[in-house]
Amino acid sequence: MLDVRRLRLLCDLSRLGTIAAVAEAHTYTPSAVSQQLSTLEREAGVPLLERTGRRVALTAAGRVLVAHAETVLAALEQTSAALAALGTGLSGPLRIGAYPTAVRALIPATLVALGQRHPGLELMVTELDPVDVPAALRERRLDVGLLHDYDAVPVEPDPTLDAVPLLDETVFLAVPADGPTDSLAATRDATWILASPGTLCHTATLQVCRTAGFTPRARHHADDFATVLALVAAGQGVSVVPQLAAARPPAGVRLIALPTRRRTRIAYRHGAATHPAVAAFVTAIRATASDTVN
User: Fold this and answer.
1) Which of 57, 84, 111 is the last residue of a domain?
2) Cβ atoms of residues 35 and 21 within 8 Å
3) Global pTM value
4) Residue 53 in contact with residue 64, Cβ under 8 Å?
5) Domain end among 64, 84, 104
6) Are residues 95 and 36 in the same domain?
7) What is the pLDDT along the chain (294 residues), one digit of tens a residue?
């Protein structure tokens, strides 16, 4: 009988590429991961890994097992969902991951609605950058999470997860209210407030500006949109902010709509869509998003 926990390790090795990365993802030691994979090979009865020095690659049998393991893991999620649906009421933990703007603008009202309808749920929220959500879902640290991307820099869907749309937001150019700027092109020589290099917001802003024919000149870096808007109001530069973060801009900020959109999706593991707690969260946060953005 093949052990499900070891199958997950093999799938993670296929995705992450190294035993060290798998060990880090699961807070194991590399030797512990190696031992578990060796045991899985004995259970399978065929070699699953090819070792060359410190490098490890999946054999043909290993790749076949990974493909079937993904199906098995999705089936287990569906089974858990079916069993949960037989209960008389929702109870137990629901672990939610969301990016900071959503935690501020969407999650509180969603938690209130869920708590009123399903008082047996133990709702737990973790603030995460969207790039960290897929791994947290795969490693079962989350049950549901929010992802986003920009149409200017689309992100390929994670093949190990399912996702449904939540928001499609306008993106705004935020400029000082007393300034003459009336378009993105007019900010060519302005100073900019950018997100930290390497973040999706930073990459999206660079791409939006490059499409307009220039590279923004950064003076400040800030990842919290409330801070960004405060800096704009203080005349420290211009920036790009999504609609969810710009609902109540401070005095001294003028917003100019851009053709760019930010798209948010609700993600969960394959097979978890019909889990009553996941379905309840999707319904509640969609209602909150509709009331907040529309």
Assistant:
1) 84
2) no
3) 0.80
4) no
5) 84
6) no
7) 788 888 888 888 888 888 888 888 788 888 888 888 999 989 889 999 988 766 788 999 998 998 888 888 888 887 787 777 676 678 889 999 999 999 999 999 999 999 999 999 999 999 998 888 998 998 889 999 999 999 999 988 888 899 999 999 999 999 999 888 889 999 999 999 999 998 889 999 999 999 999 999 999 999 999 999 999 999 999 999 999 999 889 999 999 999 999 999 999 998 899 899 999 999 999 999 998 876
